[in-house]
Structure formats: C-alpha cells, structure tokens
Amino acid sequence: MNIELIEAAAARIAGHVRQTPLLHSPFLDAIAGRRVWVKAECLQHTGSFKYRGGRSAISALDPATRARGVIAYSSGNHAQGIARAAAELGAPAVIVMPADAPALKIANTRAMGAEVVLYDRAGGVLREAVGERIAAERGLTLIRPYDEPQVIAGQGTAGLEIAAQAAEAGVARADVLVCCGGGGLTAGIALALEARAPGLRARPCEPEGFDDTARSLASGRIERNAQQAGGLCDAILTPAPGKLTFPILARLCGPGIVVSDAQCLHAMALAFLRLKIVLEPGGAAALAAALFHPDAVAGDDVIAVATGGNVDPGLFARALGML
Amino acid sequence: MNIELIEAAAARIAGHVRQTPLLHSPFLDAIAGRRVWVKAECLQHTGSFKYRGGRSAISALDPATRARGVIAYSSGNHAQGIARAAAELGAPAVIVMPADAPALKIANTRAMGAEVVLYDRAGGVLREAVGERIAAERGLTLIRPYDEPQVIAGQGTAGLEIAAQAAEAGVARADVLVCCGGGGLTAGIALALEARAPGLRARPCEPEGFDDTARSLASGRIERNAQQAGGLCDAILTPAPGKLTFPILARLCGPGIVVSDAQCLHAMALAFLRLKIVLEPGGAAALAAALFHPDAVAGDDVIAVATGGNVDPGLFARALGML
After folding, report:
1. Pick from A122-126, A130-134, A232-236: least confident
2. What does pLDDT average to over chain A?
3. pLDDT higher than 90, residue B125
4. CB of A40 within 8 A of CB of A23?
5. What is the spatial distance between Cα A290 and Cα A299, in angstroms, rounded to a whole number?
6. Is A29 in the same domain as A160?
7. Domain final position from A110, A142, A174
8. Is the pLDDT of residue A80 over 90?
9. How far apart are CA B281 and CA A252, in angstroms?
10. Is the CB of residue A181 less than 8 Å from the CB of residue A234?
C-alpha cells in the first residue's frame, strides 16, 4: 500500500465519487473547546464512504474479470457501495446478507441491481462459506470490505480530500478522528495524510466493547473483541483489525479513542441540530470523540470523519430525544 | 437588480459562504420519473440560504454605517443569517423577535452575539413599529428579509452555483424549483440563471393556503394571502410577494407550484432516507414539488433548492413517521 495506489484510485473514481464537504459550526466548537471540522461522508453516494472503496476496487479489475462479476458479504454499507458501483460499471454483483438483515437494506441492495443471497445467521452458517462456494461456482471476484488494497486505496481518497480541505481552512496540525471497524478507511486516510498533510494524524474511534483497534495499537499486535455483536454501532463492529490494515495503523495512527453508544446518539442529535446532516451511530463515533472526549485530543482544531448515515428512522428519532 | 450586483455580492462573500453540494439519488429519480438534483442549502452556515443575503447586505454597508449596527425582524432563518454575518463583520445587531418564538431560536440568535428584542405578537404590537423606533433611536440600518437589493443579490449567489453545478452535471435545460416566501431567493436565482444558464428556469414552490406568489404570477399583479399564519412551513409564510421581487419573478419565472404540508413532511423523510440531509417543512417544499407533482414539470431533469433545515426535533420525528 502506498500513496500512488490512492492517487490511481482517485483518478479512476473522479467524476463518480462525490467530494463531500468539510462542515463546521461554532456551536460544536463551543462544546469541544476547539474548532471541530466534520468531513460529511454520509453525503457520499449510498450514504457512506464505502462507495469509494467499492468503485475503486471494481474499476481496478480487468474487463474480463469484471464482466464475470463480483461478490461481497455485508449486511450494510459495504453491500450498498459494491452494489451501486457494480451496477454503474456493468459488473454483475452478488451480495451475501443475513436473512435477518433489515428489510430496507435488503430492498435497497436489490434495487441497486445486485443479486442478494440470504443465509441463516442464527443457524451457524458462516457467510464466508456461502460466499466462497458461490464465488467458485460462478467465477466471481470477492471484494473484501477492508483487507483489500484497492478498497483501502479508494477509502484513502477521502484522506486526499481532507488534506486539501484542511489546507484551505488553514488547518496545518490536527488529529483526524475516524470511525473505525476493520480499519480500511482509517488506513487509507492515514496513508493519504502521511503523503499530503504530514501535520494531520489519523486516530481510530470505536464503541465500548468493540475497541479491538485501540487495544491492538496499545499492545502492538492484533487483539480481538470478546463479543461479535451488540450495541448500536453496527457499521463498525468487526472482530479485529485487518491483516493489511493493522500494520498501516500501527505505523501511522495516534492512539484510539473509545466512545459510548449514548455519546454516539448525542453526537447524531447535535449533527442534526447544528450541521443538518444525518448520521448513523457508527458514523457518529468520531464526532462523539471530538465533542465528548476533548482531553483525548490536543491542539486548536480537530477533524472528525462522519462516515455514514444509513440509520433507521426509529433509531434516529431516539437519538433526537437526547436534545 | 442585475447580474453585476450578484457577481459583486459573490466576490464580497467568497470564502465565507459555503458552496453547498448538488445532491442526487437514484431512489428519488425513480419517484419523480426524472433525474432530481437537490441544492442542499440546509448545509449553509446557520442552516439556511439566509446567511448569503445577510452577509451580502452587511458587507455592502460603508464602514461607518456598519459600525453603527443593523436591525432585522425575524423569528427564524433571516434572524440567524443576519446575526452570524453581523458578528463576523463586527456590526452590532438587534433582532426583533416575537416573545413566543421557539426558545431555541431565541437562544441561538443570542448565542451568535445579537441583541434580541422581544415583542408581544398576541398583543397586537407590530414588529415594524418596534423595529423602526429602535432603528431611529440608535441609528441602525434595517436589513429587510427580501425587499432589499443586496439581500436579493446575496441569495442570487446560490443561483450562480446552481448554474455552474448543473453544467458540470450535464444539465442544460431544467426547471429550478425554489421554496418561496417573499421571493428574495427565487428572484436572485432567476436573475443568476438568466445570465449564466438560460436553459434553466426558476419556479416558486409554496404551501397550500400561502400561494400568494403562484396566484400573483397567474394574475400578473401582487396578490395577498387571506391568512397570515398557520401550517408547518413557517420559513416561507409571507403575506405577499415583495415590491422589488415580484417584477423579477413575473419577468423570469415559470408558473408556481403548490404543495401540501403532508407532502413537505414526506419530502423531509425522503431527504433523510436518501440524501442524509435535514430539511424543515418550508425547506422541503421544492423537493415535494419535484417528487409529488411530476406533471407540473417537463424535461429529463429537475433541480430543487432545499432551502433550510432549522426544524424542531419533534416535528422532524413526526416527518420520519411518513416512512
């Protein structure tokens, strides 16, 4: 992984991926005690940064491979990012989703033209087994959600934008807080910042109980979460940092920050009130860290990446109750 | 009023006003039966386009006049736009607000550094009388919400952005639907489009019962609303088109479109779901027209200006119930 791979991804996806704005509000600054800049990736196509990696990975395939199709496992944002990018690029797409995934997410993925294969999560079936069988039978290319160089490169294009937007805003030194699951986005941003904005430093933000990356960074080796599911931040619940992503994180990132689900809900409510954007809990973890863990950050500015906004209306209404 | 005034406003406010994105979603296209482009002015500073006009007007004052201060009457978005612009430009600001305005809006306006003068709306006191007395006593300059050339010019900068963004998206011919109260934004956009994108045509969108502009355009003279208050679209409830704005609208705009409050709520819910932005009812009228009045529009594309997102959490949760 290197900056050239990210620059090549940026060239492939230019004109397709949306350059998302860097928002701010004096009301959020007052809460955090410093200037807070929010990279609104919830405004990306499909409602999360995942479209960057999906478009990057599928566009990097040679035409014959692409024409055979791609496969991904995901119950959420990666599914939608892959489905949309595949449809745009004329690649058949199979998405393996748990049968108990929200009906809306299944419907959305189908509406984007993907074939959805459901598996019974409760029955002990592993999605990897389902996916590998289908991939082998049909000659499909698996697009992993984070341990995939072209996916990391695509997510890194968000880091190129942050570097340029921070410079335009006059921010030369700051922590860049990133909602972190497997670490694809955090690693991509860290690589982009290393090359383009060395005064900015990426830092992973995770929910309590799923702080595998924070603990891994502290111990220097890959640590796993005890639990596999639970809590509100479904978008960033992964068992452990990736084999490709962790060495990048270990080399480039500052310490992780851990936030509570309640803080994520509160950050969602404040993003509604002050920025007029919609965040999901896992997409609000970095903003929650910026607002409610000011002592974990140094400097006059902090940048929080608001990674996604695919949240059910009922849960969003619950977050608004924090106001 | 002319394009030079808008270009001069754009030069004055450059680097302060946010260039808001032009969003779209294939899911909204499917509802409307054509491509729907949403100019997300809810992401503007203070949560509505009103900051453009406020910054334009106050920055156009000569330094001595500006130092004496400005005054505005508003219970909503104009108040916040003026208060923030005044604070940034070092102008004292007095905002005359009804005593029964939402506590949050009064608090926000004060937090932005303005002096808030409350008047008793129920007691039959006219805000104009309160404002004129204070303006005379203190030598303040009144900034009217729409019948003010430098305010119209500032709002017109949104039209300059729409012209450029539509060209970038390959849209040469389309109706540009604008949520319309007194017509300052609609007039400004219409003037900008006339000069920069003659294939784009502005059209005002209003709620039922407050369709003064639609009726005025139909009759060719200024018509008034029978009622002065009511409904959900408080941001765009005005008694009649302005004396400055109406001749511009009559010369340049297509027919008005009238939407229901329920359609505005539904459009808010769809903007939440598909675009991840927060709209208030009056800020969703144009999107409601694009989605639910497809026969009122012609062509393969339509552009809807989403003018603001300053909505109470309870009302927003109610809108989400439409999903």
Report:
1. A122-126
2. 95
3. no
4. yes
5. 12
6. yes
7. A142
8. yes
9. 45
10. no
Q: Are residues A161 and A299 in the same domain?
A: yes
Nearest to A277 among B26, B278, B314 (CB): B278
For A10-32, how does the pLDDT look when each residue is reduced to its tens digit (9 = 90+)?
Answer: 999 999 999 999 999 999 999 99
Q: What is the mean pLDDT of residues B152-163?
A: 98
pLDDT band at A279 (very low <50, low <70, confident <90, very high): very high
User: What's the residue count for chain A?
Assistant: 323
Domain termination residue (choose one: B142, B159, B187): B142
ipTM, 2 decimals? 0.96
CATH number of domain containing B157: 3.40.50.1100
In contact, B169 and B22? CB cutoff 8 Å: yes
Q: Quick one: closest CA in B to A108, which residue? A: B27
The CA distance from B54 to the nearest CA of chain A, in Å, is 17
Element at B178 (helix H, strand E): strand B174-179
Domain shared by A247 and A131, yes or no: no
Judge if A187 and A105 occupy the same domain.
Answer: no
Residue written as tokens 């993925």? A109
3-state secondary structure A226-242: CCCCCCCCHHHCCCCCC
DSSP state of A48: B
- Same structural domain, A197 and A256: yes
Quickly count: other Cβ atoms within 10 Å of residue B213's Cβ.
33
Structural domain boundaries, residue B35: 3-49+148-320
Residues 6+ apart with CB under 8 A from B296: B255, B257, B289
Indicate whether B57 and B202 sit together in one domain. Answer: no
Same domain, B45 and B77: no
Over the stretch A85-113, which tens digit does the pLDDT of each residue have? Answer: 999 999 999 999 888 877 878 888 999 99
Q: Among A43, A313, A323, select the one facing B320 at the smallest CB separation.
A: A313
| Cross-chain residue pair B23–A42, CB shorter than 8 Å | no
B49-91 pLDDT, tens per residue?
Answer: 999 999 999 999 999 999 999 999 887 899 999 999 999 999 9
pLDDT in tens, A204-258: 999 999 999 999 999 999 999 998 778 899 888 888 999 999 999 999 999 999 9
Count how many domains chain A has: 2
B304 shares its domain with B316: yes
B1–chain A nearest CA distance, Å: 31
**If we measure between CA atoms, which residue out of B12, B13, B39, B9 comes closest to residue B24?**
B39
Taking contacts as CB-CB distances below 8 angstroms, the residues of chain A near B42 are 276
CA angle (B252 as vertex; B248, B258 as ends), nearest 5: 95
- Burial string for A279-314 (b: 16+ CB within 10 Å, else e) reads bbbbbbbbbbbbbbbeebbeeebbbbbbbbbbbebe
The pTM of the whole model exceeds 0.90: yes
How would DSSP label each residue in A61-82?
S-HHHHHH-EEEE-SSHHHHHH
Phi and psi at A73, nearest 5°, equal: -110, 130
Do residue B276 and residue A43 have CB atoms under 8 angstroms apart?
yes
